[in-house]
Amino acid sequence: MNFHRQGARQIHVERRTRILREHPEVRELFGNNPYTALAVVAVVVTQTFLAFWAAERSFPILVALAFTAGAVLNHASFVLVHECVHQLVFKSRAANGLLMLFSNLPFIMPTAGSFRKYHLHHHRSLGDEAWDADVPAPWEARMVGNASWRKALWLLFFPLFYGLRPRNHPNIPLWDRLTVANLSLQILYVAAFFYGGGAAPILYLGLSSVFAIGLHPLGGRWFQEHFEMTHGQESNSYYGPGNLISFNVGYHVEHHDLAFIPWNRLPQLRRIAGKHYDSLVPVHSWTGVVLRFIFDPGMSLYSRVLRPQVPSKVKGPMDDQERFLPKVELAR
Q1: CA-to-CA distance for 293 and 154, rounded, in angstroms?
Q2: If we measure between CA atoms, which residue out of 216, 251, 219 comes closest to residue 235?
Q3: CA-CA distance, 205 to 62, in Å (whole number)?
Q4: How far is CA 306 from CA 59, 181, 296, in A?
Q5: What does the DSSP 8-state code read for residue 240?
Q6: Category of 6 on φ-ψ map: left (φ > 0), alpha (ψ -120 to 50) or beta
Q7: 3-class SS at 197?
């Protein structure tokens, strides 16, 4: 088994160029949505309250609550971090950074600071093993193979494997001021929980995070985005009801095409430029994707499209609105 390797052609760049040329009105969708900050506050406050409430319940109820409401809320907090990473909430870079750190709080693990760096490289160098930390490491793919029990176990511990991936990219510095600030705030948040309620609320939040990106229906989102669900199609969208609880994160092809459109306007992009997406095969069920990954021997961590390594230069947020677009595209 091996990854599906193809040329350096970036389909997202090509489609973005065609869309902007044929539908210049989509530029009106560019910008910020400051009301997203209210969603961040609501998610963090609700999850904080639920953590203390769950701590007073029996262990089975705590686990059940973490699998249901907790997973949904922590998955939402991760998606909202993603909005801040792309500078889609406020115009101020610093304000987006602070909101990003706040949104990360109930996730327990200090993921936001490092996610920001690696995710921006992911957009610039999609499928490039040297720069795209979303691509499984070769050792990771070999170890998991295509046995159902190993794939299920990998998905259960996906947060751990995802956290180890930065070691595969020594060319990207792990520590900076934002990463240190992220870690410091998470330590303070966890310490406050331990002081106020002991280990139980921390356990609830930790399980919520594991379920949010692991062995759970929401875990299908990670396969939906860039696993080769249809041969030759490296990015996929999902238009189902899960978008209602995850801020339209399923519109992933659209997001990669025009990463400077906030979550609430992505369906409009899909309607305006529909002919550019109608030929793509969408994912219809996150749960179905999880089951397919586990039980289909034809699917594994190798089910990814990779391309040749190219230098990636990132100077600050790459996708600050139109600055993300090459000048040649803006002129078309």
Answers
A1: 11
A2: 251
A3: 10
A4: 43, 33, 21
A5: S
A6: beta
A7: helix
The series of mean pLDDT values per 10 residues for the chain, 332 residues long, is 77 93 96 97 97 94 97 97 96 95 95 89 86 88 94 91 76 84 95 91 96 93 92 93 96 96 97 95 96 94 82 46 41 31
Distance between CA atoms of residues 253 and 12, nearest Å: 8
Q: Give, in degrees to the nearest 5, the angle at Cα 82 between 6 and 129.
A: 25
CA 62 from chain centre, in angstroms, equals 26
Q: From CA 187, how far away is CA 110, in angstroms rounded?
A: 9
Cα–Cα dist 277/7, whole Å: 22
User: Which tokens hold the place of 332?
Assistant: 């078309």
User: Strand, helix or coil at 54?
Assistant: helix
Hey, what are 97's tokens? 């950074």
Query: 303: number of CA atoms within 13 Å, CB side?
Result: 27
DSSP labels, 59-105: HHHHHHHIIIIIHHHHHHHHHHHHHHHTT-S-S-HHHHHHHHHHHHG
Q: What does the DSSP 8-state code read for residue 227? A: B
Query: 204: closest CA among 43, 53, 40?
Result: 53
Q: CA 305 to CA 272: how far, in whole Å?
A: 28
